[in-house]
């Protein structure tokens, strides 16, 4: 099971992408999500930019550093 949460500006994490998804949650905007398995074994579902979503695949590593957006590593 995963825990869904909003990415905070000061958050810091890194992990492996286990699943990609997208959806029109409000009926007019497309949102892009990835499920990430963190080093401690916890899984989180986070919203990312379309550009990053298109550039990553399952098993890629992504990193979120404080003050920056998630990025492929």
Describe the structure.
The chain has 73 residues and is mostly beta strands. It is 8% helix and 45% strand. The protein is built from one helix and six strands, in the order E-E-E-E-H-E-E. It has one helix at 50-55; strands at residues 3-4, 13-23, 31-38, 43-48, 61-64, 71-72. A six-stranded mixed beta sheet has the order 1-4-3-2-5-6. A hairpin with a 7-residue loop joins strand 2 (13-23) and strand 3. The longest helix has 6 residues, at 50-55. The model has no long low-confidence stretch (mean pLDDT 90).
Topology:
Elements: E1 3-4, E2 13-23, E3 31-38, E4 43-48, H1 50-55, E5 61-64, E6 71-72
Parallel strand pairs: 1-4
Antiparallel strand pairs: 2-3, 2-5, 3-4, 5-6
């Amino acid at each position: 099971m995963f825990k869904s949460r909003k990415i905070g500006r000061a958050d810091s994490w890194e992990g492996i992408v286990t699943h990609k998804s997208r959806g029109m949650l409000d009926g007019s905007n497309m949102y892009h999500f990835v499920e990430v398995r963190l080093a401690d074994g916890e899984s989180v579902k986070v919203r990312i930019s379309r550009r990053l979503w298109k550039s990553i695949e399952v098993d890629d590593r992504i990193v979120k550093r404080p003050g920056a957006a998630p990025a492929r590593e």
